[in-house]
Amino acid sequence: MYQPEFEAMPREKLTQLQLERLRNTLRHIQANNRRYTEQLQGLGAADVKCLDDLRQFPFMTKEDLRRAYPFGLACTPQSAFMRMHMSSGTTGTPIICPHTPGDVKQWGEIVARCLTAAGVGRDDVLQITPSFGLFNGGFGFHYGASALQTMIIPIGAGRTRLQLQFMKDLGTTAVAAIASYPLRLMEVAAEEGFDFHTETKLRVGIFGAEIWSDEMRRRIEEVMGIKAFDIIGMTESGGVGMGIDCQDRSGIHVWEDHYLIEFVDPNGVEPVEDGAWGEMVVTTLTRQALPLIRFRTRDISRVISREKCNCGRTALRVERIACRNDDMLKVKGINFYPRQVESILLRHPEVGHDYLIEIDRVGGADQMTIYVETENSGNAGLAQQIDTELHNLIGLHVDLVLLPIGDLPRPAGKAMRVKDKREHGH
Ligand SMILES: [Zn+2]
Are 414 and 183 in contact (CB under 8 A)? Predict the structure, then answer.
């Protein structure tokens, strides 16, 4: 562990620390930002006697943060900012997250914990493939690896052939990436006859920023010869590194001394019980420039356990994020998530890593077509089989179009899995 005094803190002590830090955060907001204080409807530190008291506070949404563009909810003067990042994948007004030097230090610490949990240390060589820019990924891994004095290869996004060359020539042992990027690496490696097992020393992959299924994880681990770890965190929470799964792989540990996590009804306001699926709501306990109080992430997960893990950490364990509330698709009145489709597709070894779900309205009715790449695109039996499995899982029949490998577009950055051509989306 990087900070065992916090990562393995007994629950009672942890709860006490959280309460103290929550009150400090509320005092910090009250002292420094009138607008933010009003948004909390007059509630503050004095109203919090125990952690459950947080439930009286209003939720905060992405929309609140957008309306506050650029620094309307910041709780330190701009002269105290050291850097900023911007949330990706949104249209319209961006969400800006400023960081003080203290915030950057906190960020480095939580990512260092994540890297350590994944087995990355001082002797490793970490190739950082997310971009170094407005997106927080590149810098987050940079600060974490710097804290550990791990050698960094700050290559950033793209340049897949150079990525492979560096992996081989510079002795890369660990790679950090957006979850769909390993697929590009694997694809180019296949084209070049590059074998990760014999040509590299890779042993760890740390992937996040996108929803990726267990099936996808198995494929990546097999081809790249690595153990792959799922890391969570978002621009709004201060960046990547809010939690990661450990070697025991029995859930994602969330660093609770920095983040207070609740799960609530995704379509309502009521808390859900441990074990039940809900929307993850984040309150930051140590962030200075832009603290969050009850921020609705739209990510759907659930509590696995609050007990001590086999790895020794006591930090709360949550399920890998199953879906983003906004990603839910509704076709012919049936709700489902893209990851459910992915898990069916990737169970078939003949199916390539890329797929596209296209939804359209034809003659007043929804029509769903799934494009998948396969080496044997004349295989009608495969299409039939997948259709049956999808029907069993989500209750829909789909048109399945088998394409040769390489036929679907490969966008830079996050993968495109869904194309909804209907006028209003749903
Ligand atoms: Zn653990």
Answer: no
Distance from Cα 144 to the centre of ligand 1, integer Å:
19
Cα of 110 to ligand 1 centre, how many Å? 15
Q: Which residues contact 304 (CB under 8 A, 6 or more apart)?
A: 250, 251, 275, 317, 318, 319
* Of the options 3.90.380.10, 3.30.300.30, 3.30.390.50, 1.10.3720.10, the CATH number for the domain spanning 328-420: 3.30.300.30
Q: How far is ligand 1, taken at its centre, from the CA of residue 314, in Å?
A: 8
Prediction pTM value: 0.88
DSSP H helices, 68-130, are 101-117
Strands (E) across 246-294 are located at 252-254, 259-264, 278-284
Question: Mind listing the pLDDT tens digit for each residue in 60-94?
Answer: 999 999 999 999 999 999 999 999 999 865 567 89
What is the pLDDT at residue 425?
Answer: 47
Residues 236-249 have a mean pLDDT of 96
The Å distance, Cα 343 to ligand 1 centre, comes to 25
Q: How many CB atoms lie within 10 A of CB 19?
A: 18
Q: What is the pLDDT of residue 193?
A: 97
Q: Over the chain, what is the mean pLDDT?
A: 93
CA of 296 to the centre of ligand 1 (A): 25
For residue 349 the two structure tokens come to 């070894």
Give the residues across from 318 on adjacent strands.
252, 303
Q: What percent of the chain has pLDDT over 90?
A: 75
**Does the pLDDT value for residue 323 go beyond 80?**
no
Q: Over range 195-199, report the average pLDDT.
A: 98
Q: 310 alpha carbon to ligand 1 midpoint, in Å?
A: 6
State in Å: Cα 260 to ligand 1 middle: 18
**Contact by Cβ (8 Å): 287, 106:** yes
Domain residue extents for the chain: 1-326, 328-420
pLDDT confidence tier of residue 159, bands split at 50, 70 and 90: very high
Identify the CATH homologous superfamily for domain 1-326: ANL, N-terminal domain (3.40.50.12780)
- The CA 251 to ligand 1 mean position distance, Å, reads 7
Residue 90 CA to chain centroid, in angstroms? 15
Ligand 1 midpoint to CA 246 (Å): 5
Q: What tokens were used for 138?
A: 């590149």
DSSP assigned state of 235: G
Residue 6 CA to ligand 1 center (angstroms) comes to 14
Q: Residue 423 Cα, ligand 1 centroid: separation in angstroms? A: 45
